[in-house]
Amino acid sequence: MLEELTSKLESTFRRLRGYGKLTEKNIADSLKEIRRALLEADVNYKVVKDFVASVQKKAVGEEVLRSVTPGQMIVKIVHDEMVRLLGGTTATLKTAGIPPTIIMLVGLQGSGKTTFAAKLAKYLQKKNRKPLLVAADVYRPAAIQQLKILGRSINVPVYEEGIGDPVKIAFNAISYARQHMLDTIILDTAGRLHIDEQMMEELVKIKKRIRPHEILFVADGMTGQDAVNTASQFAERLNFDGVVLTKMDGDARGGAALSIKAITGKPIKFMGVGEKLEDIEQFHPDRMASRILGMGDVVTLVEKAQETIDQEKAAKLEQKLRKAEFDLEDFLDQLQQIKKMGSLESILRMIPGVGSQLKNAQVDEKNLVRVEAIINSMTKEERRNPKILNGSRRKRIAMGSGTRVQDVNQLMRQFEQMKKMMKQMKNKSFRGFGGMPFG
Ligand code: GDP
């Protein structure tokens, strides 16, 4: 996510921090670089201009120049301005006083609206809400079918009437939700390839009649300023409440994320960060600014770990580690827990300082798959007691997992190293994912 922008800003900051003393020229040069980086990231021209002007105003102050670490001070100023640009504080979803809360999703076709509907349902489910997905895209039977499949995969009911009047469907869905004690309705409305008057009229009508508590505009983050322009038009007609930026995992530049609040006045509330239904993140301007500036995002990382890692298993694992009884079955278990947290790359990027190192190195997800295949090809006995893995067993395992004997050997070496490390930390409290063979 946003790696291009991050790497440019990081190199500017590295230089800035390196100067013992800052001169007006150093600052002006850095600002020029920041300006260029933002423009190349497809951030709106006016937004960039205001941003740089406001950093400049603060950066040339006496206080900064006279401080012990002027470079650091400027980095902080850029960070704070970026937080402001991204919306300042975290914007949350509104909820109804009397359920059900109605959340209406709007956006162009292909923006990731239907996928997001299911992601949001799953997200709310984890927060003990009882969502109902409603298929109000009455023009595309395929979209209704897609929603049904997604709903089934996460055990969330889907209300649909096939082709019909979306307002009537929404009303019926509200009754259905009341009857079935479902507290949140997620309305997936019809999108078109481009903005057209008929679609807008329909959405305005649904808004007027149904009065949703929250309207979220869903946009493909990768489309940069196109997303911002579409958002402006939707904002004008529909006055929605918040933005969802999808496909941020594929967005190296970040133009939409950095412009949309300033241009439309509407905050970003969620991001889609992958194709899987757990790839959704609430949008936190401060955390996002830290990520963009290459400072990582430890808070989100810890939250993800807490959410996905099975606490009971973690406790058991800790006990085993204390006794240094860790075997390959536990190893496999741990691997699977990490995979649940999302793509390996997205996890690693949240660790401060790792982002820039990853820049050119592709994280080898295949390696994880390979490790899993190798362990899966072992017998229970072999997993519990890896010492018995002699040459012929290793050969068999390599054949069975479609890997090479070297791969098996490498894994065993890594596993031994990890065990050694764990023995050393035996007396410390240790949970979760240490020393995994990442790639
Ligand atoms: P809709 O037409 O707006 O309902 O769009 P869909 O939900 O069908 O999504 C369009 C495509 O984008 C599908 O192939 C999705 O898998 C993909 N997609 C949606 N959200 C994300 C995301 O956050 N990341 C990635 N990489 N792909 C996504």
UniProtKB/TrEMBL annotation:
The reaction(s) this protein catalyses: GTP + H2O = GDP + phosphate + H(+)
Give the EC number(s) under which this enzyme is classified.
Answer: 3.6.5.4
Coarse class of the primary localization is cytoplasm
What SMART domains would the database entry show?
Answer: AAA, SRP54, SRP54_N
List the Gene3D superfamilies hit by this protein, alphabetically.
P-loop containing nucleotide triphosphate hydrolases, Signal recognition particle SRP54, nucleotide-binding domain, Signal recognition particle, SRP54 subunit, M-domain
* Entry's localization field: Cytoplasm
The organism's superkingdom is given as Bacteria
Q: SRP54-type proteins GTP-binding domain location, by residue?
A: 267-280
| Binding of GTP, residues | 107-114, 188-192, 246-249
As recorded in UniProt, coiled-coil segments are: 302-341
GO cellular component term of the entry, any:
signal recognition particle
Pfam families assigned to the protein according to its UniProt record, in alphabetical order:
SRP54, SRP54_N, SRP_SPB
Question: What does the UniProt function comment say about this protein?
Answer: Involved in targeting and insertion of nascent membrane proteins into the cytoplasmic membrane. Binds to the hydrophobic signal sequence of the ribosome-nascent chain (RNC) as it emerges from the ribosomes. The SRP-RNC complex is then targeted to the cytoplasmic membrane where it interacts with the SRP receptor FtsY.
Q: Which family does it belong to?
A: Belongs to the GTP-binding SRP family. SRP54 subfamily.
Q: Which NCBIfam families match?
A: ffh
Q: How does it assemble?
A: Part of the signal recognition particle protein translocation system, which is composed of SRP and FtsY.
Protein name listed in UniProt? Signal recognition particle protein
Q: What is the lineage of its organism?
A: Bacteria, Pseudomonadati, Calditrichota, Calditrichia, Calditrichales
